[in-house]
Amino acid sequence: MSRKPGMFLSLSTMSFTIWAAVILLMMISQAEAYDPLDPFGNITIKWDVVSWTPDGYVALVTMNNFQMYRHIMSPGWTLSWGWAKKEVIWSMVGAQTTEQGDCSKFKGNVPHCCKKNPTVVDLLPGVPYNQQIANCCKGGVVASWGQDPSSAVSSFQVSVGLAGTTNKTVKLPTNFTLLGPGPGYTCGPAKIVPSTVYLTPDRRRKTQALMTWNVTCTYSQVLVSKNPRCCVSFSSFYNDSITPCPTCSCGCQNKKDCIMSDSNKLKNVGINTPRKDNAPLLQCTHHMCPIRVHWHVKINYREYWRVKVAVTNFNYRMNYTQWTLVAQHPNLNNVTQVFSFDYKPLVPYQSINDTAMFYGMKFYNDLLMEAGPYGNVQTEILLKKDKDIFTLKQGWAFPRKIYFNGDECQLPPPDAYPILPNSAHKNLIFSFSILEGLMFLLFLVVV
């Protein structure tokens, strides 16, 4: 067989290209799951084996949400995994599996679940006390760590049979999947860690779990949707024009399913009824986003400046509970007062303080209602000027990033920001100067 010149070179080049593509994809996938405003944010699922049984163990499973501004809202989390052997779940407290599976081989005492890949959901509030444990039964709703650390945890207890009965014979579950409530989380493998230590109620004695393993899940917005889920519009006191959300910010593929805000259509049965998959029913807009954030530069004082922020819900099927709004702007290190919202600075990097989280006051505006006359919340922010950097030129007064419920919103292009009148006047003078120069050159040529 004859070989063409350069054949080996072509094969090696192709091999290198494939490897480079693989490495690039790995880097991109890691970057997508990395949030620069919350670099250490994740959900950690901890399994503590608290006792051995004749054929297995009893474990306390605790889900801690260490994300600063991303929470799990209704209809709550769903957790699944694969058993390493032929394990079954004899019983659960504080949660339940969605299916029992085939337990026909058992006689007498029938397990709670016999599936190879069980799927677990939280219990709803109000279940009998004998089915509850601490931090359970909230319908799967888990607050963000930055908003309410005491509510950023969910727990349940599981009794596992047909498993190992010592820490040397137990096989760790595999292939963990977390929905919160939809896709977006990627979970790593279970890893054995030092056993959790507990304090007795009198705080005079320490006990510890017989065995502990952790599973870490990170969030990627790209896994949720290829399009953003919110957009941002701008306006200012010094310009009459409004910079709207970019057209089709959240994609326009579902535009045929949107409806105009017609009172007759909204009276139809089922319009405002949430679906199990949380599929939205949007008001018809040019941006087709369920959420719009509007940033308005309101007043410029001598030593302060004032911003008004409004969040509008265009989804007829969704009430946003425990919502969060995150903004990044260099002057947020000098927030003087925030009206009608709760506020917390976020400092992911100790030397930079340019990010702030805003969220509703409990029992006042922590619920963002569905689309309609009450489907909006708003605040005003008073900021002290840093005279070394403050300016209204070139869009400096507008945010660099906006997140709603942990998802980054689509901002308008920089050239569409409201401009200062004097800037527009300078541009006009510049245009006239060019025109005069061209006319002069034309005059010379003619002469």
From TrEMBL:
Ribonucleoprotein recorded as keyword: no
Pfam families attached to this UniProt entry: COB_C, COBRA
Similarity-based family: Belongs to the COBRA family.
Primary localization: membrane
Record keywords, A-Z: Glycoprotein, GPI-anchor, Lipoprotein, Membrane, Signal
InterPro entries to which the protein is assigned, alphabetical: COB_C, COBRA_pln
GO-annotated cellular components: plasma membrane; side of membrane
Signal in keyword set: yes
Lineage of the organism: Eukaryota, Viridiplantae, Streptophyta, Embryophyta, Tracheophyta
One GO BP: plant-type cell wall cellulose biosynthetic process
N-terminal signal peptide: 1-33
Domain spans labelled COBRA C-terminal: 229-418
Bilayer topology annotation: Lipid-anchor; GPI-anchor
Protein name as catalogued: COBRA-like protein
Compartment(s) where it occurs, according to its Swiss-Prot or TrEMBL record: Cell membrane
